Amino acid sequence: MTHYAGIEIGGTKLVAARGRGWSIAERVAIATTTPEETLGKAVRVLTEWHDHEPLSAIGVASFGPVRIDPAAHDYGKILATPKPGWEGTDLLAELSRFGIPVALDTDVNAAALAEARLGAGQGCDSLIYITIGTGIGGGVVVGGRPAHGLLHPELGHMMLRRVEGDDFAGVCPFHGDCLEGLVSGPALHARFAGDAAAADPQDPRWDTIASDLAQLLANLLLALSPQRIVIGGGVGLGQRSLVRRAADRVPQIIAGYLPEVDRAAMDRLIVPPALGADAGPLGAILLATDSMASAGKSLR
Question: In the record, which residues are listed under signal peptide (predicted)?
Fold first, then answer.
């Protein structure tokens, strides 16, 4: 059995997973503190695994923005981020010591890949994974592969038409009222001046938030034509009624332009993740297996 390692680097924790094939055999969670401490602990875990049973490849799925183009001079480095101390961090420098293939992508692209192949998107050629939590991230898979380009998808920083009468300034340090600035966990905390989960479900502010999220969903259907949109994350999973309220508004926004996008279709198009918290680590392991395949090595 070939062994792989996947590292999912999130804003609050790093998860290192050891996989046999495409299943997780072992995992270790590490708090995301400084880059040196966090990545140092992860490398020590991988070293123990590698010494016990040699790893064939490593996949790294990181929060963004991160340079994922291997041809770029700053490949593997975290770009401008509000995460203190992480901008400019080289995520791959210490992994070269293992002498095995290392693949890198965003955490949400990796989660999208896992859901597409193993979870809620099986049988679909195109899938978008959205995580709504401390921030809003989006991964896109088309034809079984994560979408790359100028950088990588940054769906949370898309701009949208503001709901009439909503004067909330937003909390994004870069754009103010982009989608992340309006709908993320910190945005909800600011809107409700406290725990949004404790707010009255009938509070009219939920209608505004649902309308903002619905605009994102409609824009994604129009721009990328996904066969499935998977919504996870602390807010995405903890506020499923918000997701459903947003989904209910999408056909009205589309206004008949996509005839197949009606209310009945929403239950099929917009779904929760099937893999739960395993999507990111499994996605990182899939990055590792794909790096072996691209290197022309057989998978066992």
Answer: none
